[in-house]
User: Fold this.
Amino acid sequence: MKLAVQVNEGPYQHQASDSAYHFTKAALEKGHEVFRVFFYHDGVLNGTRLTTPPQDDRNIVNRWVELAEKYDLDLVLCVAAAQRRGLVDEGEAQRNGKDATNIAPKFRISGLGQLIEAAIQSDRLVVFGD
Amino acid sequence: MADLHTVNKSPFEKNSLETAIRYSLAGSSILLLEDGVYGATKGTAMEGMVKDAMGDRKVYALRSDLMARAIKEDRVIDGVQIVDYAGFVDLVEANDKVQAWL
Amino acid sequence: MSDVKKFMYLNRRAPYGTIYAWESLEVILIGAAFDQEVSLMCMDDGVYQLVKGSDTSQSDMKNFMPTYRTLGDYGVRHMYVDKASLEARGLTQDDLIEVAWEDFETEEEVDNIVEIVDADQVAKLMAESEVVFS
Assistant:
């Protein structure tokens, strides 16, 4: 089964990112393909490399990065949502005159077309949000 | 044609469970996760609605979310099937598509 | 396998109080380029997204309500409104915008694709769609 996963909320504020992560991991461990994980609305906040969660709690951003490294996952932050919320990679920094970048590794910023494409190409779209 | 409907909000906070039940067809499956698992507990004002739904639909609840909320298995409405994330993945595969009632 | 899928955009939230209504609209606008079969389903507070007369001049927020009127040009063939949600909010079709649609190839025209549907129809339409965006 080829899956597309959408995450609508940021880390910690809602359980959406946790549920999406555990679902995605379970699917990969079962041998399914995850075509793309698309982060929309506040979900783009999962892509910042600047979080410092308490040591005794899960590190949501790092968890996604490690999963992406292990399974070569495509983690995409929606560009429009990212611009609104201040998630910046090199390309965005140059285009929009920002003096810093804050995107975590393994995440990339791209357009909403990536979500549509994922929905077309995959067998199932699973959405996690509030 | 059968769909998997996911409900992640408590039925006391939002009407998502009620709406998911109203707009799901017979033969479909409803998975309660996150705060949605409160809809699976016995003795609430929602129990009747959930039991009625189970007349022609299957209702599931995610184990880890029940446990986190101190809902022991004997407090779960009879007939609600408890699954883990692997079971969630199986449900996604077994149904035609997933509808998230956020 | 055909690359054309039946997409349903499920809108259940009011506009402005949260960003979901506007950002969902953005998905529809971008999605137009992909030529899928697209419908919008407004239920619960989502029916408020189609109410005419919004004035954001005192709110300092972008008024995106006019964008709904253009959805016919963005490949949306049906804009469904859940009857029960509408009635619970004291609204009728007269309160809602009208959205025209035209197929430029066949020249088929529809004056207004905003259509009120009852619960059975809602369930059927949602079951018939292949992808639901929430």
